[in-house]
Amino acid sequence: MCPLMGRISINAEIAQFSAGIDVDPSLWDAKTYRLTGRSRHAAEANFQIKQLSEKIHRYYKQILDEQGYITAELVKNAIGGIGRKKENLLELFREHNDEYAKQVGVTRSAETMRNYISVYNQTENFLRTHYNVEDIPMRQLELSFIEKFDSFMRIEQGFTAHTVSSYTIILRKIIRRAISQGILHKNPFASYIPEQPPRKRRHMTQEELDKFINISIASKSVCHTRDMFIFATFTGLSYADMCNLSEEHIHKEQNGSFWIKIKRQKTGSQCNIPLLDIPLQIMEKYKSERKGNTIFNMINLSCMNVNLKKIAKLCGIEKPITYHQSRHNFGTLITLSQGVPMETVSQMMGHKCIKTTQIYAKLTRQKLNEDMKKLSRRMGQKYRLSDYAENENEANQCKTVQLKPNNYGK
Predict the structure, then answer these.
(1) This model's pTM is above 0.90
(2) For residue 177, which of 239, 262, 86 has the smallest C-alpha distance?
(3) pLDDT digits (tens, 9 = 90+) for 338-378
(4) H-type helices in 127-205, by residue range?
(5) Domains of the chain, residue spans
(6) CA distances from 201 to 129, 170, 219, 318, 320 (A)
(7) 81: three-class secondary structure by DSSP
(8) 234-274 pLDDT, tens per residue?
(9) What CATH class has 206-367?
(10) CA-based, 20 to 30 A from 240: which of 54, 298, 338, 402?
């Protein structure tokens, strides 16, 4: 077997390259540039040569149309993927995912990587089902494409509005990548707005939280999940930050109080969180089980959410409870409802923008009632509505305020 070489000749310029195909030299026909015979080897090799030839001619036309000139070296580089832009949607998507995968565990999370892979698979499935193609050129994308993709996920796949929104966000990120690389000159999905249902309350009620704290649990692992959830409820730490929490993040002040001082993994923002009695009790409870410097031995997030469903069932709570609700509990029940200012809550939760805090910390009716009662007490008898004056003497007894011109201008 011998490696097959290719030669591109354009305007007397020649560029040679390896075709990446091994052939039997005794079967080679120099006139037709093909293998002779009907063997399986000859058929497979001839098919690969045909595909390569078609690719060369396609790149020749594409480069000539885009750049206005052509050389043998440009075509050769395009075949090898050197200096060639990814012109197709899935092709550019794969390039993005390959780059992202190299950063997993360093600056990116494996869970987000799985989301990108899932969106890629759904896009590939959509193209095969509705367009009967393996890929689609970026320049053929129109607003109708993402609208059909939206309907495909909602109707055929049965995804929720939240999932559809998150998937289209990732797809639009690939479009922005194409624009930044000069593949596209404008965003074909610019006017697309995914349908979003109004968000429901994402924090627990005070009654539900009390049940979670006081419920007796026989299983040690389920009890551990409950304790981690309560710790996060009183500190606002996310799952990733709970996994990273170590002894170096616990600081004791001169007045004897303990604080968590940690940078959020997601945003890199500094969080300064006072440790109340309940989180201190939980830390002491699991102190003997520590492995290394980490405060807690955290289990997998999916397992934790399964355990939370079990606890909710024990408490008679019918709505789904997830671990991330603990941050909403902190933002609403533990801080804002107790009169903690929004700016302080934002700093403790590690938000870069206070608008993010407003999403977590929704005002409750209890908080509104308490604020109005405080306002009523402060106002007291400060304002009083005068009664109707029956005669001129009573009217003259009313105090009036006269407005006088100043002496600064005429």
Answers:
(1) no
(2) 86
(3) 878 888 888 898 888 887 777 765 555 555 666 677 667 77
(4) 143-151, 161-180
(5) 2-79, 89-180, 206-367
(6) 37, 25, 30, 15, 12
(7) coil
(8) 999 999 999 999 999 999 998 989 999 999 888 788 899 99
(9) mainly alpha
(10) 338
